[in-house]
Amino acid sequence: MIVARDRGALSDALEPLRERGTVALVPTMGYLHDGHLSLVDIARESADSVVVSIFVNPLQFGVGEDLETYPRSEEHDLDRLRERGVEVVFTPTVPEMYPDGDPIVTVSPGRLGRRLCGAFRPGHFAGVLTVVARLFGLVRPDAAAFGQKDYQQATLIRRMVRDLEMGVEVVTGPIVREADGLAMSSRNANLTPAERESAVGLSRALEAGADALATGITDAPRVLDHVRAVLSGFDLLELQYAEVVDARSLETVDVVREGNVLALAAFCGTTRLIDNRVL
Ligand code: AMP
Which of 84, 155, 187, 220 gets the most CB atoms within 10 Å of its CB? Predict the structure, then answer.
């Protein structure tokens, strides 16, 4: 496994891979868990070689967000990627990634970027799309893998690739969860034991929403009442939003249909968690 810390080393490492066949990219912010590794496996199915990037992207963090406390552990990450048979890891520093400082020209997520998390994190998705576009430019992958854990992000990336004709096959992987249902996330490392107990409320609430639908309740506000009722039983969760949305437009729906997405965001102490379920 080659660890490329700058663009030159990345370019050198990519050359033989491209000669050999196709390349898939898995962009991450590190502190890797089984969710990330599932994407490595999915990437492997769609290309001959796998490149993983590890980069905590300052552009996608807002003022007062957790850029400084975002968990990092490079050695552990590299060990796990080596075990998984990854060919190249790209781990640039911030100046290496943005040698001219913050980019002047960025990718605008448009109205999709104002829905759900975008309403609470202005600039976040522009930061995400800009770094992914830049990674696509540096790696020029044939395919790229993203998790459905970040449903809005995956939707926006598909849309960016289509709207800007980027010619990258976007593949997505299902949410990988802990045994009790909590969606795996690097940010879970920042939860206290008491917060960790409350954090399971998110997946429980999603289950309650799906159960309500299964009993024939299709009125979205009523489904969301069931969701909120469960969440209110978990002391340390402070709900930011609970919505049922159309899977593509991310617009809220009044009547729930199969394929709609139930999406949640909540603070658990100072840690912001998200989760979703396709109904
Ligand atoms: P991050 O390091 O949090 O930026 O995530 C990198 C990639 O891993 C993104 O495409 C995420 O959607 C994906 N991912 C994060 N957590 C999970 C999970 N629990 N299951 C599946 N994919 C995930």
Answer: 155
Whole-number Å distance, alpha carbon 60 to ligand 1 midpoint, is 15
Is the Cβ atom of 124 under 6 angstroms away from ligand 1? no
Confidence class of residue 164 from pLDDT cuts 50, 70 and 90?
very high
65-105 pLDDT, tens digit per residue, is 999 999 999 999 999 999 999 999 999 999 999 999 999 99
Neighbours of 23 (CB within 10 A): 22
Residue 145 alpha carbon, nearest atom of ligand 1: 10
Give the distance (Å) from ligand 1 centre to CA of residue 184.
8
Distance 276 CA to ligand 1 centre (A): 13
Residue of 149, 153, 273 with the most ligand 1 atoms within 8 Å of its CB, for mutation: 149
Residue 184 · residue 203 · CB < 8 Å:
no
Q: Is 109 helix (H, G, I), strand (E, B) or coil?
A: coil
Q: Which of 57, 66, 23 is nearest to 132 (CA)?
A: 57
Terminal C-alpha separation, the chain: 39
DSSP code per residue over 127-190: HHHHHHHHHHHHH--SEEEEEGGGHHHHHHHHHHHHHTT---EEEEEPPPB-TTSPBP-GGGGG
pTM: 0.98
Active centre residues (catalytic): 36
pLDDT digits (tens, 9 = 90+) for 115-132: 999 999 999 999 999 999
Directed axis angle between helix 201-214 and helix 220-231, to 10°? 150
Residue 216 gets the label, from left (phi > 0), alpha (psi -120 to 50) or beta, of: left
- Between helix 124-139 and helix 151-163 the angle, nearest 10°, is 60
